Amino acid sequence: MTIEELKREALRLDPSGRADLARELLESLDDLSESEVERLWFEEAERRRVEVQSGNVTPIPMDEVFARARAARA
User: Fold this and answer.
1) pLDDT tens for the chain, residues 1 to 74
2) Residue 19: C-alpha distances to residues 14, 16, 27, 64, 70 (Å)
3) So where are the chain's domains?
4) Counting Cβ atoms within 10 Å, is residue 6 exposed (0-12), middle (13-18) or buried (19+)?
5) CA dihedral defined by 1, 32, 34, 53, rounded to 10 degrees?
6) 24-49 burial: b if 16+ Cβ within 10 Å, else e
């Protein structure tokens, strides 16, 4: 089963089931070593870099992000 297939199946769960699954998946990350966490962050940063360079994602300036967050909290 691919990750996409797994995601589709997981999204078919009721909200409580999805929450339980999400909780268990997040807890499983606590068992990662520091080097595994570092590797995962590097992979995520690289994925984001590629998305921005390809034009698939448009970065938002930090000031705008914070302004939006402050406005949402108001």
Assistant:
1) 899 999 999 999 999 999 999 999 999 988 889 999 999 999 999 999 999 999 999 999 999 999 999 999 98
2) 9, 5, 12, 31, 28
3) 1-31, 33-74
4) exposed
5) 30
6) eeeeeeeeeeeeeeeeeeeeeeeeee
